[in-house]
Design goal:
This protein is an alpha/beta fold. The protein is built from 18 helices and 14 strands. A 6-stranded parallel sheet has the order 3-2-1-4-5-6, with helices on both faces. The protein has a 6-stranded parallel sheet with strand order 11-10-9-12-13-14, with helices on both faces. The structure holds uridine-5'-diphosphate-xylopyranose (2 copies). One uridine-5'-diphosphate-xylopyranose binds next to helix 5.
């Protein structure tokens, strides 16, 4: 039996540890966090995050071999293996502000591990970190005068919100990087042993530390790049009469390209893509590779352009003014099946429309509380309405901003009847049946398709 500890009970730490606890009943898994409210929520019937399948998994393991606690020091002392999944936001100050990762929580955590350890431990990087962070961690951890040895292992998470439990249970691959020393390889084997309880051995990849750290950034950069690429093409489709869905289907059938991650959208969001690409950009700049940095930075710029373009399209369609007009934003989560609104394109659209003095109503089945918190002072100027029909009533326009399947299944005839005419729908996720909406009387604007309008 091993005592496994995870520091950071967020979107990554919570689901990851719940799955490890379920798949490895012989191990004791503890998740700690400095945030008392968050830990209390993990111990309650209302988990702090919404993730399909998570409630059942936590219920089955909690207080058996999965525990949540705020006693960080005590649990560090007891642990054999410590996963660290504290947040690594983009730095907002000093050198690298706006791009580099803010590593203060990571370093603080490393020092806390050191202070509370009397036995050797394996420290696993779960958080996304700049390449060679493990080296800094080793220097801090092994600076103790007592001869205690710590091994730092990189095991980046690839789980996507909304499918986190499924991704952990059945991963495409698990990546584990460690030092090529005997002690590093022993630590690596200990982490391999955990995952091999349920993951086929051929899907567990082992590399050196730096390849593992870098692969995480590169995976997210490639995924985001695909979205920015298809979004760039969506602008061209709108001008030429091509349909971006048809183009995506046609190119995706080429097995060298593949069909995934080609859905044109109002933009990508989430806590990782923007942060990780900017991290990669900073790393390239730091290494003197300015052309490479510029290449990847364009992926983020294209995403900002797509969000801005969506709002410009709304404005020009609605006779160049939305001041005082009620506009319902349908969906505010950054993607379907999550309550998370971090970097959500819906919030960017909301803020831009507030600048234009529109009257904004936001509806979402799970993300309203997070949206309210993320909007800060702007939240006072927004109405939060859980019922999509009430949100749309009296609106001049509705905009689909999250690909929630329930939004595609609403009674749009009833919604049309309740709206101001001419009624507009802007489908930022291409999930609606545009022809039938047009027949109902809507003026329809989708991503990457010529608009369907009733007037010339
Ligand atoms: C975050 C990042 O978004 C991701 O890129 C990274 O790989 C891992 O960390 P996530 O789980 O989504 O992932 O973050 P978040 O939900 O903010 O959870 C981090 C938790 O760490 C918070 O609950 C926070 O209270 C906790 N924390 C932070 C500590 O317990 N101690 C600290 O010193 C700092
Ligand atoms: C991502 C990575 O997929 C995951 O491997 C990593 O561990 C964390 O970052 P996540 O941000 O949770 O996961 O969700 P993801 O499914 O990647 O979607 C990110 C954003 O891209 C969402 O806003 C989504 O709506 C958007 N998206 C995705 C598109 O606009 N089009 C697509 O084709 C796919």
């Amino acid at each position: 039996m091993a005592n496994i500890l995870c520091i950071g009970a967020g979107y990554v730490g919570g689901p990851t540890m719940a799955v490890i606890a379920q798949k490895c009943p012989q191990h004791r898994v503890v998740v700690v966090d400095i945030n008392e409210a968050r830990i209390a929520a993990w111990q309650s019937d209302h988990l702090p995050i919404y993730e399909p399948g998570l409630d059942d998994m936590v219920r089955a393991t909690r207080n058996k071999n999965l525990f949540f606690s705020t006693e960080v020091d005590r649990h560090i002392a007891e642990a054999d293996i410590i996963f660290v999944s504290v947040n690594t936001p983009t730095k907002t100050f000093g050198q690298g502000a706006g791009k580099a990762a803010d590593l203060q929580y990571w370093e603080k955590t490393a020092r806390q591990i050191l202070q509370n350890s009397t036995t050797p431990k394996i420290v696993v990087e779960k958080s996304t970190l700049p390449v060679r962070t493990a080296e800094a961690m080793e220097h801090i951890l092994n600076s103790n005068g007592e001869g205690l040895h710590f091994d730092v292992v990189s095991n980046p998470e690839f789980l996507a919100e909304g499918t986190a439990v499924r991704n952990m249970e059945n991963p495409d691959r698990v990546l584990i990087g460690a030092r090529e020393t005997p002690s590093g390889q022993k630590a690596l084997q200990a982490i391999v042993d955990i995952y091999s309880q349920w993951v086929p051995r051929e899907r567990i990849i082992t590399t050196n530390l730096w390849s593992s750290e870098l692969s995480k950034l590169v995976a997210n950069a490639f995924l985001a790049q695909r979205i920015s690429s298809i979004n760039a093409i969506s602008a061209l489709c709108e001008k030429t009469g091509a349909n971006v869905n048809e183009v995506a289907h046609a190119i995706g059938m080429d097995s060298r390209i593949g069909p995934h991650f080609l859905n044109a959208s109002v933009g990508f969001g989430g806590s990782c893509f923007r942060k990780d690409i900017l991290n990669l950009v900073y790393l390239c700049e730091y290494c003197g590779l300015s052309e490479i940095a510029g290449y990847w930075e364009q992926v983020v710029k294209m995403n900002e352009h797509q969000e801005a373009r969506f709002v410009s399209n709304m404005l020009s369609a609605m006779f160049n003014t939305v001041a005082g007009k009620r506009i319902a934003l349908l969906g505010v989560a950054f993607k379907a099946n999550t309550s998370d609104t971090r970097e959500s394109p819906a919030l960017a659209v909301c803020r831009a429309l507030l600048e234009e003095r529109a009257e904004i109503v936001i509806t979402d089945s799970h993300a309203l509380d997070n949206a309210r918190a993320d909007l800060g002072a702007d939240a006072r100027r927004v109405t939060f309405e859980p019922d999509p029909y009430a949100a749309a009533a009296g609106a001049y326009a509705i905009a689909i901003l999250t690909e929630w399947s329930y939004l595609a299944e609403l009674d749009y005839q009833a919604i049309y009847q309740s709206m101001v005419r001419p009624a507009f729908v802007f489908d930022g996720r291409n999930i609606l049946d545009h022809q039938s909406l047009f027949k109902m009387g809507f003026n329809v604007y989708a991503i990457g398709k010529p608009p369907l309008v009733h007037f010339q």
